[in-house]
Amino acid sequence: MKSIFSLERYYFWIIITSLFVNLTWIICIPTQPFPDFLFFHELAQQIAKGGIWGNTFYAVGYPVFLAFFYRLFGSSLLVAKSLNIVLTFVSCILFLRILKILPLKEWTRRGAFLAFVFFPTNIYYNSIVSTEIFFTSLLLLIFNIYFSNIKYKYWLIGLLTGLMSLVKPFFPAFVLIVFLIELISQHSVLLAMKRAGIVLIICLLAITPWLYRNYKLIGEFTYISNNSGIILYINNNSENIRGVWMPAADVAGSIVNKPEYQTANATQKNKMLSKAAKQWIINNPGKFMILGFKRIDNTYFHPLGDSDFIFYGTNFSINTSPILTYIAVGLWVIVFLPGIMAILVFSFYYLYKAAKKELRTIPHAGKEAGLLLTFLMFTGIYFVTEGQTRYAFPLVFILVYFTFRTLTLGQDLLNRKLFAVRP
């Protein structure tokens, strides 16, 4: 009989414990939907009852997914939170599969899994009705498929890329990540273009029905959602000094106060806002760069930045219990700071090896480069558009991985075996 401390038993008991902790959390902390998230809950209820699937302003992939379960089990917050726990469980399994593929030693693999499973956001996000857990589970599924050798994996990745674009409309940019990973792994531009092309075509086919639906609503071509312009506009203007949300009407000479804007349809408004924001960026490159770094700071360097909505509607606050503050900040220091530093070091190292045409000497170069490029893609988008603490959530598994990958590398360096890990 296997010991409880054997490989599989270790992971099994970690997952069981996490399920108990997550369930206890949603029972003891009955969070109500924050105003930003109340839309998802109410739209899912509306769809579950056979109502319309929203307008063109928001991406509605998550509410549509949630509505399916509301229709089966009832439109209650408990259903949404229980679904979060299931998705968190799935994410843990998917992350473990990734850890078993990538070059970690068993002690660092166990540490990475433990850190991910009990990372604060992976516990308290279970009580909020938002896209983060759903989107992250799909992102982990994409990497599981990508790191496998299953047939038609690029078709499946294309389908998932399309579905995830209905949650976060910027995600078609992942096609570029596929191209770069293939180029690093295969050293063939034509093969990289072919495989990335498959992902792009399937992605476009997946979102086409929604694009057609939007066209029928507006009367002209309309992308997945019409809120990219307002996000770009309120985050890139001379009145925005903190890199956070502000009322669009407070921008000097705001376009939203002009008659031509007020009489335009949703798509035209989106284009007008986007054009104005881009023009401001061109005219103010220095201020734009400063705001961009402030947005990155808001995303990665404020471990308690999401405390407003994780306890919203309760009498509880993260300040009520100092131990929660210590745990949140402590794990952030242990995972986020080393993870970001490791990502920067690995990125420069890979660029150096690429310049010397020595990437083939690095085990799993394509796989690790895929994680690095995904992190950099998200970070670049946040730099230009908007930064919030919760936007870091889909990247926690990447930060955790590179934190513990560095520990593996440290042991290898001590053994004078740079980037050469034993299976």
Helix segment tally? 18
Oligomer type: single chain
Number of strands: 0
| DSSP strand content | under 5%
Radius of gyration computed on alpha carbons:
22 Å
Category by helix and strand content:
mainly alpha
**Parts with pLDDT < 50 across at least 5 consecutive residues:** 1-6, 417-423
N-to-C span = 25 Å
Can you summarize the main beta sheet?
A: none
Shape: globular
Q: Roughly what is the average pLDDT, rounded to an integer?
A: 90
When the domains are counted, the total is: 1
| Helix-strand sequence | HHHHHHHHHHHHHHHHHH
| Helix proportion | 55-70%
Overview of the molecule:
This protein has one domain (7-414). It is built from 18 helices and no strands. It has helices spanning 7-28, 35-48, 61-73, 77-101, 106-117, 120-124, 132-146, 153-165, 174-186, 189-218, 228-235, 259-262, 266-283, 285-300, 307-310, 322-355, 365-384, 396-414. The two termini are 25 Å apart.
What is the structure about, briefly put?
Helices cover about 65% and strands about 0% of the residues.
Topology:
Elements: H1 7-28, H2 35-48, H3 61-73, H4 77-101, H5 106-117, H6 120-124, H7 132-146, H8 153-165, H9 174-186, H10 189-218, H11 228-235, H12 259-262, H13 266-283, H14 285-300, H15 307-310, H16 322-355, H17 365-384, H18 396-414
Quick tags:
mainly alpha, 423 residues, 18 helices, globular
